[in-house]
Amino acid sequence: xxxxxxxxxxxxxxxxxxxxxxxxxxxxxxxxxxxxxxxxxxxxxxxxxxxxxxxxxxxxxxxxxxxxxxxxxxxxxxxxxxxxxxxxxxxxxxxxxxxxxxxxxxxxxxxxxxxxxxxxxxxxxxxxxxxxxxxxxxxxxxxxxxxxxxxxxxxxxxxxxxxxxxxxxxxxxxxxxxxxxxxxxxxxxxxxxxxxxxxxxxxxxxxxxxx
Length: 211
Prior knowledge:
Layout: H1 2-20, E1 30-34, E2 41-43, E3 59-61, H2 79-88, E4 94-98, H3 101-108, H4 118-121, E5 128-129, H5 137-146, E6 152-155, E7 159-164, H6 167-189, H7 199-210
Helix pairs in contact: 1-6, 2-5, 3-6
């Protein structure tokens, strides 16, 4: 299947990009994509070194979320969380969970995103989920409860969750929010209050950026 083969390659490239950027650790973080025409999903395997994954390592899930016959390895422990987002958001085509350090620190400090840049405006209402055990039904329920217009969810003590209409879109959101979190934390470290984009302009930008 040409479409699936291409998506597998895109997943490899995205994992490596996020790994090299420090958002994914050797065994921490996972990503998935929705296959076209309701054929199921592809998701990264559990406990394999993320920096050296290849296309064949990606695990195919059927429409019911169960690994296809002959699948090698175990799908990510966060598979239920990915599947829940696809269920709630029919237009979502990709989900990424990273252990982005600045975003993780942002969640630990229970900070709120402020409109310091145009990129930041997209994440003004990013929800924060209190810690739940990875892969647990409680984590799935907590994420389901807070899903909003924001393209991201902060997972306290655990990292960052982003999603979008393509793998590129979800990865861009992860990279952008990581930069925003870094800027805001550095402002706090400098004991300075950043100049914010005016409220009316921020509202207009948010509507434009989130469609």
